[in-house]
Amino acid sequence: MRSDDYNRWLLPPDMMIERQLHKMLFPSETRSDGDGRLLRLGGTIYRFEFDRENRTAVLTVDYTVRILVDRRPAGSGSLSVTTQRTLTDDTPAAAAAAMSGCVEESVAAARKFLIETNAEAQKAK
């Protein structure tokens, strides 16, 4: 196995995405609306890599949300997000910037998905 500057990260990919999710969702929003409802977001990272031939960072995450009412399942949904960003040059900093852009775009899509899923669940009440 070969190591290079592109594969050295301070945090594992899942922790980086989790940190970005918390930054975008909290503290301005709460986990529950106070009526026993809870949205639980999960995800699986399928691709977190650099395509050197095409000079892009690529991130694929499948998100799932479960709606719980009084701790009982009341609905669910899923979303698959693939994001790509072009590497501006051949440096570790450019690679990190490109992947950060992928993470931000993916998290923004997850946030929108949560808002839409919650709105749909509220209508169904």
TrEMBL record:
SUPFAM superfamilies from the UniProt entry: XCC0632-like (SSF159594)
This protein's name: ABC-type transport auxiliary lipoprotein component domain-containing protein
Source organism per UniProt: bioreactor metagenome
